[in-house]
Structure formats: structure tokens, C-alpha cells
Write a structure and sequence with these properties.
Number of strands: 12
Radius of gyration: 20 Å
Oligomer: single chain
Helix content: 25-40%
Shape: globular
């Protein structure tokens, strides 16, 4: 089955984002979700360019990823073999919790991408998904993936912590390309215990901040950690904020001015409040004290 020119951007988006729903593809392409869905169902799925992800509820919108022919198309464009492409061998082995988590991440990434296209003051220099590789040949995950670090600190008694955010957005003012800010994204579907796993993530961010790795790894002047929640209310956000306040208090720094300065990096939002028109300029983000914040200060 021949590939229409209008279908090629869909395949490129699926390669860049890995998993997308028709509504997300419609936003990226400036087309209606119905038109995108029709192209996928009538041409791309039958032609094995696209695969419909399984393991979803009947009321859920379908999600898609590249199929064998889709990877062949991308490999041809990149002038490489299919085996050289990331995740090309994992089409049918991806668990539903992973691709649903990626869909949440992509909702945020799309807002950042689209919001920066017409923004007068902000430039998105680079978006790094969690699977982007630095050294594919390495067997050590901290060497293999761009967004993977092994961190050790005194408060963990030498036990290494894994620093592995879901995505990174490197952003700078239009007129100041040397002033990059590293925005690390944590997509939260409410499956991890706040007092346990989430607190451990906070500790990893503290070590990452204290060691200035955002500057050493990405030449950034500042860093932010964005927690975006799939929850319908901000109750879980308030729980996370209390954990951060407790961590600051135990450092004898309840205002986050010195030892607990890392707490000022955190921002929290509900995914329903994130859109391309709001993500940068609207106070849809809460800081660690619950105050509404915009990512970009108004002039």
C-alpha cells in the first residue's frame, strides 16, 4: 500500500513521541482528530505503518505507535537500518501502564512544543524524552540514556538513587540563547506512594540540584522540576507539598533559603490545566508552598 504525503508527518510524530492518540496527532498536525483517525484506520494500520495499542478500556480513545513499515519509512529518512532506531524491537512488548504514562507525558510535551512555536519571548531549544540514548552500546543505564543518573549522598548512607525524569525541556529567552533553563518533567498517574517513592524522587532532585548537574550536563543556568498529575483534584499535590515542607524543616531551613533551596525548583499542576496557551504564561503551576506561578515572568 502506497504512503500518501499527508500521512508522512503522522509517522514522524509517532517516531518522535512514541505513542499518540488521534487527538494529540490532530493538535500537532493542525487537523481534526476524525481526519487523522480515518487516515490511520483506512491506510496506515492496514499498511502496517501504524499499530493500534491494545489493553485499553472500550471508552478510552485509541493510542497508536509505529508498525514495521512505519519503522522502515523512518529508517529510510534517517538513512540507517531499523535496528539502529530506538525501541524498534518493542512494538508488541510494551505494557499498558508504560504507554499510558507516556501519553500523559506527551500531553505536556505537546503543550510545550505548540506553545513555543508562536511565543514572542520563549524558545524551546530541545525536548528530551526518557528513552533518548546517549551511548546505545553501553550496558550501564546511566551511560546509555541521556536522562539517567546514579546519585549518591550522605543522607542515603551511600545508597545510590536513580534520577530518571520522564522528559526534559531546555528553554531559553528568544534573545538570550545562552540562558537555558532545564525543566524536568515527572508525569504522575497516582500509582506511587508519596511518602515512599515520590519522596525518594525528591531526594534525587536534591542531590541533582546540589551537585549542579543541570549545569554540567546541559549547560543550564537554572532547573525546575515539573510534576504534572492526572488526578481530578489537587489533593495529591498538597500531599507532595507537605512532604517537601517536611524535608525543608528537617534541614533546619523551613523557608528553603539555604540547605533546602532545592524545594524552590518544584512546580505542580493538573494535566487538565495544561494547554499550549497556558503552559508558559498562566499561573497554572503551584510552587512548594501552594502559590500559583507562571513559568515565564510577564514583562
Amino acid at each position: 500500500m502506497s504512503l500518501a504525503d499527508a500521512d508522512k508527518p503522522i509517522l514522524r510524530d509517532l517516531f518522535s513521541y512514541r505513542f499518540l492518540q488521534s487527538g494529540q496527532l490532530g493538535l500537532l498536525r493542525g487537523r481534526s482528530s476524525q481526519v487523522v483517525r480515518r487516515a490511520i484506520r483506512k491506510r496506515l494500520v492496514p499498511g502496517k505503518y501504524v499499530v493500534n495499542m491494545a489493553q485499553r478500556f472500550p471508552t478510552e480513545e485509541a493510542a497508536y505507535t509505529l508498525g514495521p513499515e512505519g519503522f522502515e519509512f523512518i529508517a529510510y529518512e534517517h538513512r540507517c537500518s531499523v535496528s539502529d532506531l530506538p525501541y524498534s524491537k518493542k512494538i508488541n512488548r510494551v505494557k499498558s501502564y508504560f504507554w499510558k504514562h507516556t501519553l500523559l507525558t506527551n500531553n505536556v510535551r505537546i503543550a510545550f512544543d505548540l506553545g513555543s512555536r508562536t511565543h514572542e519571548r520563549v524558545h524551546l531549544a530541545r525536548a528530551v524524552p526518557e528513552w533518548e540514548m546517549d551511548n546505545p552500546a553501553s550496558n550501564k543505564k546511566e551511560e546509555k540514556f541521556v536522562l539517567w543518573e546514579r546519585l549518591c549522598g550522605e543522607e542515603m548512607n551511600g545508597k545510590p538513587l536513580s534520577f530518571r525524569p520522564d522528559a526534559l525541556f531546555l528553554i531559553h529567552p528568544q534573545e538570550q540563547p545562552d540562558y537555558k533553563v532545564a525543566y524536568f518533567l515527572e508525569s504522575d498517574r497516582g500509582t506511587e506512594d508519596v511518602a515512599g517513592k515520590i519522596r525518594e524522587k525528591f531526594l534525587a532532585y536534591r542531590l541533582y540540584f546540589d551537585q549542579l548537574l543541570f549545569s554540567k550536563r546541559f549547560d543550564a543556568r537554572q532547573m525546575r522540576c515539573l510534576f504534572v498529575l492526572e488526578a481530578p483534584t489537587d489533593y495529591r499535590i498538597r500531599t507532595m507539598q507537605r512532604v517537601l515542607a517536611d524535608m525543608a524543616g528537617k534541614l533546619d531551613d523551613p523557608q528553603g533559603e539555604g540547605k533546602a533551596g532545592f524545594v524552590k525548583c518544584f512546580r505542580f499542576a493538573l494535566v487538565g490545566d495544561i494547554s499550549e496557551s497556558a503552559v508558559y504564561d498562566e499561573p497554572v503551576w503551584q510552587d512548594w508552598k501552594g502559590e500559583g506561578r507562571a513559568l515565564v515572568k510577564s514583562e
